[in-house]
Structure formats: C-alpha cells, structure tokens
Fold these 2 entries.
Entry 1:
Amino acid sequence: MPDKLTNSEPVAATTETVAPAVAPGPPRKIYSIVKYGDPILEKPTAAITEFGPELEELTEDMFASMYAAQGVGLAAPQIGKNLRLTVVDVTAGKNPEGKIVLINPEIIHAEGEKREEEGCLSIPGFRGYVVRPQFVTVKAQNAKGEFFEIRGEDLLARAFCHEIDHLNGILFIQHLSMLKRDLIRRKIKKLRKQGEW
Ligand code: NI
C-alpha cells in the first residue's frame, strides 16, 4: 500500500533531523515494483518452507524497496516472487519497531468495519474506497520460522488485509464496484497503449 492514505497521521515538521529515519546497514537491493497487468499479481502464492538468513536478507531488501517506493506494505508477488511473504510498516521507517514481517500469514480474527481510501504500489495513480475490518488478528511466521500472532487496528488492519489479499492473488480494485474497476482498467489500458504503464 502506498502511504498516501486519508487516515494517515500528518507528519510534524522539524528542523532537528539528527538521525536517519532508517538505521544504517548493509546496502540493500532495491527491487522494481511489478505493475498491474503482470499475471504474477493475480496468482495465489506458494507457502514458504525454508527459513533462515537468506529469507531474512530478502525481507530486509523488501523493506528497503518498500521505503524507496514510499509504501507502507509490500508483498512478494510485487517484486516478482511467488512466495507467501509480505512486509508492512505503517510508520514508513520512522520506528524500527514498526517493521512487521509476515510469512505464511492467515487472518484468524476480524472485527468491525471501516471504509477508507486505498491504493497500491502496483497500481500507481489510482485509488478507491474499500471496506475492511477495523481490527484483525493475523497468525504468521517470522524469517526464523517462529509462529506469532499480531493484532492490527485501522490503517495497520487495512495494510494486513491488503497485503494478505496480494498473497492470494487479489488486488484492491477487486473490492471496488464493477463500474469503478472497469474505469480504472480502461484508463490503464490506455496508459499501456501510450507506453506509460
Ligand atoms: Ni498493494
């Protein structure tokens, strides 16, 4: 999900930038983001069965790619990988504790409803209102293969749902009315003809 959400907190202006937003580390691979139209985005992903340092490296590269694209969530199919893996950070790299890796995630509880505008790094320039649960609990594994549960509210719940949808081959436009979805599809088709997609 891109960060331009209607319910995102305004960022306080400051002149005292003393520390970088993201702690320095080894240089990261920045993946380009797969755009709508690539069939990988509409295919369910394969469960991850091998855990360890290589997978950890991949998740860090995904965070770096997500921050570079100014997103708050990135799923493996969006970098061309058919893996049941997604990273989420609704703090946009401002808080290291905001980094969430979800491997083989499943929503085990959902509650309430919220309708907010949503977008996707793979469908740049298009947005739409989507109803999502206000609260969700996700069960997932980390890069070491350890199981954990995490609860999200509002934007975090929305990000979990949006990213887990990606892992099931579902894009946010599939939650829009047929009219709105067709309008977006037609505009993308036109952009593609013009070589702008
Ligand atoms: Ni997306």
Note: Residues 18-193 form a domain with the Peptide Deformylase fold (CATH 3.90.45.10).
Entry 2:
Amino acid sequence: MDKKTLEQEVAKRRTFAIISHPDAGKTTITEQMLLFGGVIREAGTVKAKKSGNFATSDWMEIEKKRGISVTSSVMQFDFDGKRVNILDTPGHEDFSEDTYRTLMAVDAAVMVIDSAKGIEPQTKKLFKVVKKRGIPIFTFMNKLDRDGREPLDLIAELEELLDIEGVAMNWPMGMGKGLRGLYDIYSHRIEMYRPESEATRFVPLDPETGTIKGNHPLKEDTIYQQTLDDIDLLSEAGNKFDRAKIAAGEQTPVYFGSALTNFGVESFLKSFLSMAPAPAEHELQSGNTLGADAPEFSGFVFKIQANMNPAHRDRIAFVRICSGEFQKGMTVKLARTGKDLRLNNATEFMSAQREQVESAVAGDIVGLYDTGNFQIGDSIYTGKEDIQFEKLPQFTPELFVEVTAKNVMKQKSFHKGMQQLVQEGAVQLYKTYATDDYILGAVGQLQFEVFQFRMLHEYNSEVIMKPIGARTARWIDPEQLDPRMSSSRNLLVKDLQGNPLFLFENRFAENWFKDKYPDIKLKTLM
Ligand code: G4P
C-alpha cells in the first residue's frame, strides 16, 4: 500500500468500545449497528450467540458454556464511508481485566444507559477507565419506548455521578406509550417514532426558529409545545456543545433512543461517527509519541485468549495496530525480547466468521496465533527504530482466593504454572507476609475458573481455591509497613514486585483502619 492509500485507509478507521451495565442494551444496539453495516442480515444473531444458541467452533470450553465466543471480540464493518471496529467489553460473569484492557485499545467509547435506571455500577467503573484516557465518550440513553426518568435528570446525573458534562444532541418527544419522536437539535429535523411510511419519518425544522415548517399534525400535539419549551430551556441553561471538550472526554454528546425498536440508532451512529476520531498518535515509553500515519508497522498486545481445548494449545494474542500496515507473514520485532517473529496466522474479526486477514492498518485489531511468545502489553514493530508503547495499567482486583496445590508432591508444576499464568496478566498473585500463602486476585470470577482449568490441563496441577470473598485492595508506602497492622479483616500481603498492600474485608474495615492509622496513605492501582 503506498503512503497516500495508507493515510486514507487510516483516516477511515473508527475504533470504539461500548460500555454499559448488564441489560442496558449493549447487545441490542451492537446488533442494530451490525445490521446497518451489513454484517448480519437478521436481528437476533448476536443475541443468539449470547444466550448460547449459536454454533460456535471448538473454542474455549468455558466460553462455550457461557455462550460467548471469541469471534464477537471484535466486529468490523463499513458504514457511511468509514471502517468501523467495535471491540466487545465482556460483561456479566465475564467481566474481567480484559474488559478494562480492551478500553486501552480504542479511540472512543459509547456509553449505553438504561433511561429508566440511569447510571449503574458497572457503567461507572468502566467510565472511570475511559475518562482517565481522555478519549471522546458518546452517550446513548436507551429504552425510550418505556417510561423512564426525566431526560433533564439523566443529563444532570452524568455530571453528578461521573463528573462529565452532558450535551443533548436530540430530545425525546414523550416516552413509553406516549413516545412520538426525537427532536434532533443539530440536524434540524424531527424523527418520528413508528412513522406511517419512510417518507414521513423525518419532519424538517426551520433552522432559524427550530419549529416545524408549514402544516403538520404534530403541531397540534401538546407534546410538541412541551418539547419546544424544553429546547428553549436547554439552550439557555444547558451545557454548550464544545468540540474541544468532547475530544478530550470532558463533555459527552447525549442521544436518546430505543435500540430494541431501532429508533434513533442510525442517526446516533452517523452523528457520533462523524465526531469520533480516526486513530491518533500513541505515547511511547521513551517519552516520544508515534503517529498513526507513521509508515512502519507497530502495535501492542492488549489481550491474550487461551484455547481451553486441550487438543488445541494455541492462544490468540489480540493486537491493536498503532501505525503502518499489517501484512500476513511479515516479520516483526518483539520489543520485550528484541527477537524477530514471523507472523503467519493472523485473524481479522468479523462478527459472523473468523476470516484470515491479508492486510490491516492502524486502528484495526488483528488476532495472532500464539504459541507462548506474547505477553499482555507487548509491543511489536518493524523498522529500525525501537518502539515500546506505554505500559498498560494494572487494575485493582476485587475478588480474591487462597490457592494451594492439592497434591503437595507436585509443587514444581504448581509453581511453574502459577508463574506463567500470572505473567499473562489474567490474575494477580499475592503472598501473605507471615506464612507466604498464595492469594490470587482478579477483577472477575471467570478468571479463577480459567486459571484452575488451565493449571490442570496445561500444567497437570490440581489446585484448591478457597474464596476469601470480595475485598478492597489498597497499596501502602513500603516505608510505612508494620506487620502488626495486619488482621483477618485487613490482611497484609505483598504483590509480585514486593509492594505491600492491605486486603480489606469491606468499607467498614477500611474506615476503621483509616481512623486507627490516620498517617497511612492507602492507594489503588488505577
Ligand atoms: P446487554 O447486552 O447490555 O446486557 O443488554 P441486551 O441488549 O441483552 O438487552 C437487555 C434487555 O433489554 C433485553 O431484554 C432487550 O431486549 C431489552 N432492550 C434492549 N434495548 C431495549 C429498548 O430500547 N427498549 C426496550 N423496551 N427493551 C430493550 P430481555 O427481556 O432480557 O431479552 P429478550 O428476551 O427480550 O431478548
């Protein structure tokens, strides 16, 4: 690909993730987007996969049992002149470090909120990670076909709970049974809910006055007048649309709609894709930045998925391409080891099937078959200049188990497995100060199950895991360490680097500790 084509291709890319709380409608809206992109032909395809009604290949057994599939990890399609990559952020029981790390590989995020429920805990957690990255966040207030909370309330909540300004892009005309349409503030039109025909779907507005031109039955509807009053109020008291703030993730454009009835989704997709950024530069460990239009290939591994089928020991390393073009069979340098690697089997992800990729550019994700070469956070590149992307952050685990080998005679394989799996970054390992007991920490429960399964199948080591429940992990300054501060309610442990931290049983235990030791500073990872 010549320089100009490469630049054009990169400029077309839009790579984002959808963040939400379970049941807000992420799957439904993803499916609608795939329909617009022509990837699927029927609604229900992604849904069927989620509920386990989908014929997947022999991928991870645990994944299969839970009805998820690696093929849905990345979905790619063309829409409105853009090449869209949607990265899935596993939720429900599959919520894990991977969910967070995926957010390191995107250029924007879409936040789906159930308009009856408002901002829920998982949305908040994911939002925090996205906010730290300073990338644009677009909000879809879903389920407008049901009675929900007041639109103004929902926007105010963004500021109260997430500390981000919300700026309304459209405004609901009624909701639930009374839903009539969406007043589209920037496109100067009303999108009718359930119009009689396609021709009557949009009602144009006079851009000067913001009112319907000519005659229209809607003008007689009280909801119309009410909406005009709301819009007046918004333009006086609401946040002002600000491109710079949106780009920095300080303001989120808010769209209302209903994913299930496919109402407002297409307008949303068009509008946010027009504002979402193409791949930009990435920070390097050297302190320099690398532009997405740099000619040489580079990328980093943000997720490694193991194949749980013992007959297939291969794994897939997911690479976010940061610059240049990826080509099948190319030789790259692995920054961590300085060794050359030939990349033979690469997979580009489509929602319907896995396809062999010939080439991909900055912004795209490729899956590389891995026989143990890669670690999460690895940088790969071609060209003479060394490229090491910034380290991926570690996330504070929330669940903990004590782990021991069932057979004390098999300590060697136990330790080997522990060491290798911990290095992959799926779980974090801690040791107690007093007795050197192993404690594993993870963001989600699934990680423990995968760990146990792989210890048995890959290292022939049966492990016993004793849950010690949800805990809050807080790091302390090693200089302030005093083993006498440890108790069952605030267990003192050290991480792999030897840094001390407490695992608090709950908030009360943490507050009690803070009162007792006011001089000790407690820190989280991210
Ligand atoms: P998730 O991926 O965020 O977990 O949510 P998902 O899309 O699976 O949606 C969760 C539930 O909310 C589903 O109902 C779905 O049909 C419903 N839903 C999604 N968008 C809308 C919407 O705009 N309006 C309404 N009224 N409902 C919506 P379910 O009963 O759990 O599943 P199903 O049996 O209906 O498929």
Note: The longest helix spans residues 222-237.
